[in-house]
Amino acid sequence: MIVRSLFFAQYRDFAGADELAVELPEGASAAELVARLRGGGGGLARLPEKPAIAVNMDYSPLSTPLSHGDEVAFIPPVAGG
Amino acid sequence: MKPVARAFAHVTDAPIDAARLLADSVSPADGAALLFWGVVRNENEGRPVARLEYQAYGAMAEHEMLRIATEAVERFGTGDVHVVHRVGMLEIGEASVAICVAAPHRGQAYEASRYVIEQLKRRVPVWKREGYTDGDTEWVPGFTPEPRELEEAR
To answer: Does B90 touch chain A (CB under 8 A)?
Structure first.
């Protein structure tokens, strides 16, 4: 299955991109996606081990199982307002 | 019959129009409207700031601001609540966020207004990069948002 990973703020600087499509086995968790991205080398190795994430615009635990087409956003500590 | 109060939220890259927000928020049932106007300050922790760049996960920021505005209407029994966040490069003194709360009575408006800004700062996926007068830039540290189910369990 393919999931879309979105990056913002400093994570976008690490990734060098605002979005990446990632291929994962069916039913993989968000934690597995994080491990895959961190393990891929380059700037993404600087992603924290347990970043806050949103799956389809809902803050979710890293244990959340993903589905094809899911949008997983990596959320650095928020500083709005 | 009093119309049902509504929540509105949007993210924009244009300057926020305060007069229009107030005019749009007030209905005949309201005795007061409060505008929270968040502006870019000229210093942060002793460092002189030249400008601020705001970045948002736009679709989710609107989603989350709408949730927060709806919670405010429900918890405090206000009239309409409007939340607007601006993104892009902002100069000192420009407004980055505006929250307009209309209510039958001012007590509800004060409480709801405070609630919305405090929740916004903890939950809405927006980030800011400070540009200092010495040319340096830095993403401002912030709050780590929690998954909803953890928040609801509290």
So the answer is: no
Is B41 within 8 Å of B131 (Cβ atoms)?
Answer: no
Structure tokens at B128: 């800011």
Q: Compute the average pLDDT of residues B4-33.
A: 96
Does the predicted model carry a pTM greater than 0.95?
Answer: no
Nearest to A81 among B121, B139, B148 (CB): B121
- Cβ-Cβ contacts under 8 Å, A59 against chain B: 123, 145-148
Please indicate whether, in this complex, the C-beta atoms of A54 and B96 are within 8 angstroms of each other: no
Chain B residues lying within 8 Å of A18, measured CB to CB = none
Write out pLDDT tens, residues B49-90.
Answer: 899 999 999 999 999 999 999 999 999 999 999 999 999 999
Angstrom distance (rounded) from CA B79 to CA B106: 11
